[in-house]
C-alpha cells in the first residue's frame, strides 16, 4: 500500500499559546481505515481540520495524494470528503438538494444517477424530498456522509461519526463505513468508542496532548500492549488460596471454583507453566483453562495515563 | 476559476430567495409604495417639481437606490452570515473553492436579488408616476454596479459579524442615514453651499446622482465621478474580501 496522506512534522500552536499538535508525523495508506483515538482536547480534530483546510498549521507539511495542502490546496481538497463532528445542515433544504449543492461546490458536473445511487446506498432515497430538519439524528448524519461522498473523494474523514448515536444506528454506520472501504475509500475516523476502533480499524493511532503516541496495525497493537487474563476452572472449589499460591497475583472467584491470573504477553516468562505445575503439586485438579485478551480500552488507558511513554 | 462552484453557490442562494419569493418582494415593494404615497402624492403635491422634473418622478431613482442598497447589504451579509451561524460554512472552506468563487456566488446572488426587486419597484413607479428613462443602458449599468458594490460591502459585514446584532447595526446606523442624506429625496443643489459641500463627502450621493442622471439627465456631480466612485468601492471591497479569505480572519482558526 502507498501513502495517500503524508503528514510531516505537523504542529499547531494557537494564539492563546495552547499547543494543539506538536510535531506529528504520520503516513496513511490508500484504502485503509485508520482510527485516531485520544481523550477530549488531544488534538484529533485539530489534525483533521488542518488536513481539510479549516485550521491553518503553524509548522510542518501535509500532502494528500501528492498535493501539498497549502500550495496545491485545490488538488488536495478535491480528494477529500469531511463528515464533521456536529450535525451541520441547512434546516430548510431538501436532502437531494444538499447533496447536489455539495457536488457542485466541488466543481463536479451534475450526475443524477450517482446522486440516486449514493442516496439509495445510505437508505436516504425515500427521504430525498424531505427537508433536513424533518429527519432523525441518524438520518441527518447519513446526509452528512452523502454530502461528503458527493464528489467521489478518495479520502473520507469521519470526525466522531457515532457520537451521541444509539447502538442500532452505530452498527448501521459501521456497515456504511465498511462498504466504503470495500469501494477503496481511505477512511480516517476519530472516535471515543474504543469498541468502534477495535471492530473496524486496520490501524490505530493514539493522540494525547498534541502528540502522536503511536500508530500501529490493530493486531500488532493488541499483541504488543495487550495483557491476557487466564481463567483456571477447578474441579473442586477452594475455601482459600493455599500458601504455595499466595503472593503471585492470583485471585480466587467468590464461588471458589475459579482462579484468575493476569499476565503480560510481552514478558519473557508468563509464569503459566510454573503456576500449573504448582497447582498439580498442591493437588488441585484443573477442569478447564481459558484466556482472554485485554480490550483496547485498557490498552488506551494505559497509554494516555503515561503520556510520554 | 471553478465556475461550477460559482453556479452552485449562486443557485443555492437564489433558491433561498425563491423559497420565500413573495415575502422577499412584498416587503420592499410595499414600503416603496408608501414612500410614493407620502413623498410623491402628499408632499409632492406641494413641491411640484425639482429642476423641471415632477417631484413624484424625481424621487424614483432615490427610492430605487434606497432599496437596492438596503437589499444588497442585507442579502449578502445574511447570505454569508447564515452558514457561519449554522456552522455549514465549513463546506465552503474545505471545498476546492477559492475566495473569488465564493464571493462571486454569494455577491452575484445578493446583487441579482436586489436588481430584481429594484426592477419591480421601477414597474410600480411607472404605474404611479409614468417615469421616463433618458439613458436606459446607463440606468441598468448603475443599478448593477451599485448592487454589486453594496453586496460586496454586505458580504464583508457578514464575514465580520459575530452575532445578529452586529449584522443589523451597519445597515441601520450607516447605510440608511447615508442614503437619506445622499439626496434620495432632494437634489444636493437645493442645500445651502456649506451643507452641499458636506453632502458631497457622502459616497452614496455619487451613486444616486449618477442613477438620477440616467433617468432625467440631471446630476449633482459629474457622471464620470459617479462611475469612478462605484468602481473604487468595488475594488476596495474586493481587496478587503481577498485579504479576509487569505488570512482566514473570522473564518479559519
UniProtKB/TrEMBL annotation, chain A:
GO terms for molecular function: ATP binding; ATP hydrolysis activity. The keyword Metal-binding does not apply. Residues 5-234 form the ABC transporter domain. Keywords: ATP-binding, Nucleotide-binding, Transport. InterPro entries: AAA+_ATPase, ABC_transporter-like_ATP-bd, ABC_transporter-like_CS, ABC_transporter_ATP-binding, P-loop_NTPase. The keyword Zinc does not apply. Signal peptide: none annotated. This is ABC-2 type transport system ATP-binding protein. It comes from Paracoccus lutimaris.
TrEMBL record, chain B:
Residues 19-248 form the ABC transmembrane type-2 domain. The keyword Membrane applies. Its main location: membrane. One of its GO terms (cellular component) is ATP-binding cassette (ABC) transporter complex. It is found in: Cell inner membrane; Membrane. It comes from the Bacteria. One of its GO terms (molecular function) is ABC-type transporter activity. Keywords: Cell membrane, Membrane, Transmembrane, Transmembrane helix, Transport. It is a multi-pass membrane protein. The keyword Ribonucleoprotein does not apply. InterPro entries: ABC-2_transport_permease, ABC2_TM, ABC2_TM_bact-type, ABC_2_transport. Belongs to the ABC-2 integral membrane protein family. This is Transport permease protein. It comes from Paracoccus lutimaris.
Amino acid at each position: 500500500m502507498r501513502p495517500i496522506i503524508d503528514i510531516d512534522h505537523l504542529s499547531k500552536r494557537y494564539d492563546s499559546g495552547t499547543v494543539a499538535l506538536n510535531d506529528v508525523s504520520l503516513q496513511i495508506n490508500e484504502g485503509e481505515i485508520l482510527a485516531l483515538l485520544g481523550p477530549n482536547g488531544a488534538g484529533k480534530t485539530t489534525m483533521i481540520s488542518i488536513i481539510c483546510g479549516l485550521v491553518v498549521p503553524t509548522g510542518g507539511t501535509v500532502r494528500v495524494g501528492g498535493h501539498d495542502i497549502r500550495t496545491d490546496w485545490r488538488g488536495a481538497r478535491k480528494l477529500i470528503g469531511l463528515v464533521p463532528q456536529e450535525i451541520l445542515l441547512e434546516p430548510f433544504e431538501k436532502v437531494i438538494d444538499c447533496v447536489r449543492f455539495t457536488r457542485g461546490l466541488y466543481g463536479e458536473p451534475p450526475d443524477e444517477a450517482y446522486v440516486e445511487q449514493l442516496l439509495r446506498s445510505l437508505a436516504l432515497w425515500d427521504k430525498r424530498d424531505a427537508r433536513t430538519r424533518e429527519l432523525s439524528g441518524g438520518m441527518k448524519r447519513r446526509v452528512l456522509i452523502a454530502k461528503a461522498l458527493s464528489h467521489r473523494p478518495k479520502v473520507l474523514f469521519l470526525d466522531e461519526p457515532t457520537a451521541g448515536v444509539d447502538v442500532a444506528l452505530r452498527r448501521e454506520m459501521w456497515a456504511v463505513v465498511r462498504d466504503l472501504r470495500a469501494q477503496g475509500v481511505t477512511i480516517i475516523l476519530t472516535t471515543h468508542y474504543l469498541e468502534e476502533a477495535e471492530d473496524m480499524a486496520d490501524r490505530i493511532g493514539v493522540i494525547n496532548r498534541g502528540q502522536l503516541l503511536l500508530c500501529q496495525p490493530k493486531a500488532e497493537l493488541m499483541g504488543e500492549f495487550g495483557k491476557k487474563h487466564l481463567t483456571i476452572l477447578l474441579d473442586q472449589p477452594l475455601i482459600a488460596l493455599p500458601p504455595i499460591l499466595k503472593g503471585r497475583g492470583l485471585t480466587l472467584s467468590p464461588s471458589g471454583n475459579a482462579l484468575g491470573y493476569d499476565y503480560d504477553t510481552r514478558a519473557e516468562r508468563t509464569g503459566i507453566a510454573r503456576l500449573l505445575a504448582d497447582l498439580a503439586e498442591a493437588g488441585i485438579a484443573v477442569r478447564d483453562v481459558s484466556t482472554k485478551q485485554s480490550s483496547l480500552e485498557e490498552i488506551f488507558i494505559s497509554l494516555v495515563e503515561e503520556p510520554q511513554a | 476559476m471553478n465556475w461550477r462552484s460559482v453556479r452552485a453557490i449562486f443557485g443555492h442562494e437564489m433558491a433561498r430567495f425563491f423559497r420565500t419569493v413573495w415575502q422577499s418582494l412584498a416587503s420592499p415593494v410595499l414600503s416603496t409604495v408608501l414612500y410614493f404615497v407620502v413623498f410623491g402624492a402628499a408632499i409632492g403635491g406641494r413641491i411640484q417639481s425639482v429642476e423641471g422634473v415632477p417631484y413624484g418622478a424625481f424621487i424614483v431613482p432615490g427610492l430605487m437606490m434606497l432599496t437596492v442598497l438596503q437589499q444588497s447589504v442585507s442579502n449578502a451579509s445574511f447570505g454569508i452570515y447564515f452558514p457561519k451561524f449554522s456552522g455549514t460554512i465549513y463546506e465552503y472552506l474545505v471545498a476546492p473553492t477559492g475566495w473569488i468563487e465564493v464571493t462571486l456566488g454569494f455577491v452575484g446572488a445578493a446583487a441579482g436579488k436586489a436588481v430584481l426587486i429594484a426592477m419591480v419597484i421601477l414597474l410600480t413607479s411607472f404605474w404611479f408616476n409614468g417615469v421616463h428613462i433618458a439613458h436606459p443602458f446607463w440606468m441598468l449599468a448603475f443599478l448593477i454596479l451599485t448592487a454589486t458594490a453594496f453586496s460586496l460591502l454586505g458580504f464583508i459585514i457578514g464575514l465580520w459579524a459575530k452575532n445578529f446584532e452586529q449584522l443589523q447595526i451597519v445597515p441601520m446606523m450607516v447605510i440608511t442615514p447615508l442614503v437619506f442624506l445622499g439626496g434620495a429625496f432632494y437634489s444636493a443643489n437645493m442645500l445651502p453651499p456649506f451643507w452641499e459641500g458636506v453632502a458631497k463627502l457622502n459616497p452614496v450621493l455619487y451613486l444616486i446622482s449618477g442613477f438620477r442622471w440616467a433617468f432625467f439627465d440631471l446630476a449633482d456631480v459629474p457622471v464620470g465621478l459617479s462611475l469612478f466612485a462605484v468602481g473604487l468601492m468595488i475594488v476596495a471591497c474586493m481587496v478587503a474580501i481577498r485579504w479576509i479569505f487569505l488570512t482566514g480572519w473570522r473564518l479559519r482558526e
